[in-house]
Amino acid sequence: MGNEPPVGAPTPGAWGAPTPAANTPGVWGAPTPAPISYDTPGGDGFGHGIPQTPGVSDLYHSFNVTEELPEKWLLDPTLSTKKGMLAEIRHSNGRSGEGWHNGDYEGEKVVILSVLDTHNDSFRSTATVRFLNPQVTLDQPVIPVEYLTPVPPDRTGDEVIILQRDRRGTRGKLRDAPSDSEDWIVSITGLNLMVDVKRNLLIKVVAGE
């Protein structure tokens, strides 16, 4: 009896501090950093389920802004040197300025080949374009930039250029385009980065241009 422990005294190892294995990293600790797959087969490529670990949370950015493009958006230095952007001819019937070909090509889609900025309001800045419609016989005509409106991508996998101010001129690829949302997901070319961009602030790039 003299060697029995006092009543109520905790027996070492029975009710004491948890053993070291209880908080083993990877069990209840912080998520273990893991490589993120975007374009590899089997990965969703949309940044879904990205672990919030240091250095990984920066792989996905959201830019929820409301922004309107200026009429002469194409003269922005980050865009004017880009080739292959797809635009639609709008307001060419004379609503703005002098019009273009009496509006005969209103609604036609064109690929932008080059841009000439006159830096002078007395002389109209123009873009040299190529018509997508093979029935149009005009060969690389020159059109005032104010008659060109960006055409957004229409399917995942489309090459795009971002028009949003945060990343204007940045090239990427459309990864997710939910029909019930104006926010579409784009992967940035050359970076392990996804961004959320408004649909109307994306312009499609024609492959091969």
Summarize the structure.
Residues 1-26 are annotated as: Disordered. The chain has 209 residues and is an all-beta fold.
What would you note in describing this structure?
This protein has strands spanning 60-62, 86-89, 109-116, 126-131, 142-144, 148-150, 159-162, 171-176, 183-188, 194-198, 202-204. With 209 residues, it is mostly beta strands. Among the domains are: 60-67 and 152-204, SH3 type barrels (Roll), CATH 2.30.30; 73-150. Strands 1-10-9-8-7-11 form a six-stranded mixed beta sheet, with no helix packed on it. A hairpin with an 8-residue loop joins β7 (159-162) and β8 (171-176). It is globular. The model is unreliable at 5-11, 13-19 and 21-58 (pLDDT under 50). Residues 10-26 have a biased composition (Low complexity). Residues 1-26 are annotated as: Disordered.
So what's the overall shape? globular
Q: Which class of secondary structure composition applies to the elements?
A: mainly beta
Question: How far apart lie the N and C ends?
Answer: 94 Å
Which sequence of SSEs, written as H and E, runs from N to C?
A: EEEEEEEEEEE
Largest sheet: 6 strands, mixed
Alpha carbon gyration radius? 28 Å
| Tally of strands | 11
Side by side, the strands of the main sheet go: 1-10-9-8-7-11
User: Approximately how much helix is present in the residues?
Assistant: under 10%
Count up the helices: 0
Q: Strand portion, in percent?
A: 15-25%
Biased composition (Low complexity): 10-26
Region (Disordered): 1-26
